[in-house]
Amino acid sequence: MSQSTPPPQPQSPIRPEAQPAPAVQQGPQPADGNPFAQQAPAAVAPQQPAPLRGNVALGLAAAVVAAVAAAALYGMIIGFTEHEIGWAAVGVGFVIGLAAGRLGGRNPVLAVAAALLALGSVYLGQLVGEAMIGADQLDLGFSEVFFQHFGVVQDAWKEQADPLTFLFFAIAGWAAFSGARKAAG
Questions:
Q1: Distance CA 179, CA 111 (A)
Q2: Contact 180/93 with Cβ under 8 angstroms?
Q3: Which residues, 6 or more positions from 78, have their beta carbon under 8 angstroms from its beta carbon?
Q4: How many CB atoms lie within 10 A of CB 143?
Q5: Which of 2, 18, 64, 101 has the most crowded Cβ, counting Cβ within 10 A?
Q6: Are 167 and 85 in contact (CB under 8 A)?
Q7: What is the pTM of this model?
Q8: Cβ atoms within 10 A of the Cβ of 51, count?
Q9: How many CB atoms lie within 10 A of CB 106?
Q10: From its phi and psi, is residue 67 left (phi > 0), alpha (psi between -120 and 50) or beta?
Q11: What values do phi and psi take at 55, rounded to 5?
Q12: What's the pLDDT score for residue 37?
């Protein structure tokens, strides 16, 4: 049992200033004896919003952005080296799948969409590479060749396409599909 006030002290007639002052109680004690029960609650830090994950639309949007960026990078690699590089196609697919799976979650539509976007990204990258090579050979600007003579760029791609070209499509699609599934897991 706790006491709320100290027991009374005998008064000394000789020195009244030496007597301790009586304890001042700042409010009634709670019934359970917890002196901290009536204090104001401490400020609570604001919670951070939950990470964006499991949103299919956001996963698709991220995959589209990744596909465009990967196509540009893949096209520049082809344009500078004048060769298709298989590991770059794997990277294109994996980046797209990673973006879709990380933000989109486990929805199986995302893995299929990532694979399709990887196919389009590799194709667009190969066209960018062809346009860079053609612009260099014709001593023209890239944008002029790519945008004003797009049909010529596609015809050049068709002439140079071989089985290895289509193998790179398959590799990128597989990497995107498996990357999306692994990133979501």
A1: 8
A2: no
A3: 84, 85, 88, 125, 126, 128, 129, 130, 132, 133
A4: 10
A5: 101
A6: no
A7: 0.70
A8: 8
A9: 16
A10: alpha
A11: -100, 110
A12: 62
